[in-house]
Amino acid sequence: MQDRSIIHLNVTDFAVAVERLQDSSLKRIPLIVAPEQAARALVYDMSEEAYGDGVRKGMRLDRARRYCRRAQILMPRPRLYRRAMSALVAQVIHYTPLVEQGKEDGHLFMDVTGTHRLFGPAPDIAWRLRKQVQKELGLDPVWSLASNKLVSKVASRMVRPLGEYIVGAGEESEFLAPLPLSMLPGLSHEELGLLQDFNLERIGQLAQLSREQLAVPFRKRGEYLYEASRGQDRIPVLPGGTGTGQVCREYHFEDDTAERSEVQGVLTSLVHELGRQLRQEGKVGQRVGVRLSYSDGRRSVRQATEAGGTDNDFLLRQLALTALDRAWQRRVRIRSCVLICDRLLPRSRQQTLFVLNSPQEQQQEKMVAAMDTVCARFGSGTIRLGTAV
Asked: In angstroms, rounded to a whole number, what is the distance separating the alpha carbons of residues 231 and 214?
């Protein structure tokens, strides 16, 4: 089997980089991007200077200000970041159709396996692309090259805010071994804490454990830890997606809430955003999950499934509310919620011989199509489901 060549391109502190392109006077000034007027504002992004002072994404703004008192606060402009992300993708797509992008965060994965006859070796492609992005967009990305996405993502973290890193095929485990466990993507705060309880600090120490040993405390997650600690990652580069075979939306409440109706209303809004993305990508999801983050730092995740898959907002909402009921089992205020749809399948383009949907489902599909038309013309937040449907 041919070794893959996966480039991870990352414009560090993407929102800050775009803001500084718009206003050159912001250069060399510590910046924090956050909705300052919100009652419980969270950091959207921060400059390298603020990061050095201890500011992190998702941190409460009042705390971030204490860490970096000299920082200037900027209001987030997601539409501007989306346009910048689209421009970045336009530069990359020339080299390979296998481009996977994050959500206006400056992260891109490229599978350039087999393109050397057109563009030369993979490192040359990365060098050329970086210079091209610098010249055309004024952005300066870091890049890394490895045989899979997991290792290339970790490698790019080694060289922020500027630089490049190459991990050769067969060197994945050796590269990861001395790194702290916090560098391994996908680990939750609870999992890191449990590993520390076992006196494990380095990825190489985790890699010494067998599948059976990891299955005892981590159950199904043990398989991921076993493979990831050895630099194994089978997930391909998925054009246009997040690469996890899922789409998700997240919402942070301005004030922690215990009102179920408020959380249900937020999920209803997120459902239409998520469903619209599924329809644009021609996909349906078989499982909808809700992840709740509580005020005390604990989390709860539950799912609901639809065997045939769906992209219908009404059915997605039913699944989301079912998952919410299963997840909300504590009398603690909610800080944020994440709506996740995974087990994605291509939506069938073939028309069925017989009408299988009920009249209600047919009417719902017409309504969803009309809502998509309105949003396409006037903006994504123009219309959405009501909370009483």
From this structure: 16
**pTM, 2 dp:** 0.68
User: Mean pLDDT, to the nearest integer, of 78-89?
Assistant: 89
Q: Would you call the peptide bond into 161 cis, given omega within 30 degrees of 0 as the criterion? A: yes
Place 129 in a pLDDT band, splitting at 50, 70 and 90.
very high
Where would I find the H helices in 23-148?
48-52, 61-67, 78-92, 116-119, 122-137
pLDDT band at 311 (very low <50, low <70, confident <90, very high): confident
> Helix axis angle, 14-22 relative to 78-92, nearest 10°?
100
Which tokens go with 270? 């997120």
DSSP per residue over 224-286, as a string? HHHHHTTT---PPP-TTS-SSSEEEEEEEEEEEE--HHHHHHHHHHHHHHHHHHHHHHTEEEE
Count CB neighbours of 63 within 10 A: 13
DSSP character at residue 45: E
> Of the candidates 190, 1, 251, which has an alpha carbon nearest to the alpha carbon of residue 113?
1
Element (H, E) at 299: strand 299-310
Q: Which residues contact 113 (CB under 8 A, 6 or more apart)?
A: 2, 3, 4, 5, 6
Phi, psi (5° rounding) for residue 53?
A: -85, 0
Structural domains of the chain sorted by starting position, each given as residue range(s) with its CATH number in brackets: 173-228 (1.10.150.20), 246-378 (3.30.1490.100)
Check if the beta carbon of residue 99 is closer than 8 Å to that of residue 109. Answer: yes
In one letter, which amino acid is 51?
Y
Q: Which contiguous run of DSSP H or E holds residue 367?
A: helix 359-378
Distance CA 148, CA 74 (A): 36
**Gap between the Cα atoms of 196 and 251, Å rounded:** 30
Q: By the 8 A CB rule, do 160 and 12 touch?
A: yes
